[in-house]
Amino acid sequence: MRIELLQAMPIFGGISEETLQFLVDRAAVVNRETDEYFFREDEKADAMFVLESGAVAISKQWEGKEHLLEHLSQGDCFGEMALIDLSPRSASVMAIEPSSAIAIDYTNMLDLHMHNLEQFTIIQMNMARELSRRLRLADEQLFQAKFNPSHS
Q: Three-state SS string across the chain, please?
C-alpha cells in the first residue's frame, strides 16, 4: 500500500517501483495522536512526511497567535522543503486526528543519490515543480490581496 500511496503523488511521478521500495525500506513511520505535533515552526528540518492515514493542520505563528493555513489528509505530503534547503521549519504541523506518516529524511535521499542518481534527480525535479506551483499560487494570492482586496 505504501508504494501505491507514493505512486499517486506528483513528487514521485515517473519513479520506478524499485526506487519507491528502496525509499520505503529506509523510511521511518511516525505516528501522532490528536493534537500532537509532527514538528513545530522553526525546529530543525531534515525530513519530509507522506501522510499515510489521518489528517493534519498546518499553521504559522503571527504576533503570538497560531494561524491555520491548511488541512491535509491521506496521500498529502508536508515538510519537503527540508530536503531542498535544510532550513528550519517554516510552519507547524499538528495531527487533528490519529495520524501516521512515512518520514523520508535527508539520509534516505543521500542513499538514493548513491544508489540511483537518475531517480534521485527526477524526485528533486518533481519537488522543484511542486514548490514552484505553490509559489505561483502564493504569488497570485498576494497579488489579489494587494490589488483587489475585496477578492480575498
A: CHHHHHHCCHHHCCCCHHHHHHHHHHCEEEEECCCCEEECCCCCCCEEEEEEECEEEEEEEECCEEEEEEEEECCCEECCCHHHHCCCCCCEEEECCCEEEEEEEHHHHHHHHHHCHHHHHHHHHHHHHHHHHHHHHHHHHHHHHHHCHHHC
pLDDT digits (tens, 9 = 90+) for 125-151: 999 999 999 899 989 989 998 898 776
The matching CATH number, chosen from 1.10.1270.20, 3.30.70.420, 3.30.565.10, 2.60.120.10, for 2-151 is 2.60.120.10
Domain ranges, ordered by start, for the chain: 2-151
- This prediction's pTM: 0.89
Q: 102: buried, middle or exposed (CB in 10 Å: 19+, 13-18, 0-12)?
A: buried
- pLDDT tens per residue across span 11-41: 999 999 999 999 999 999 999 999 999 999 9
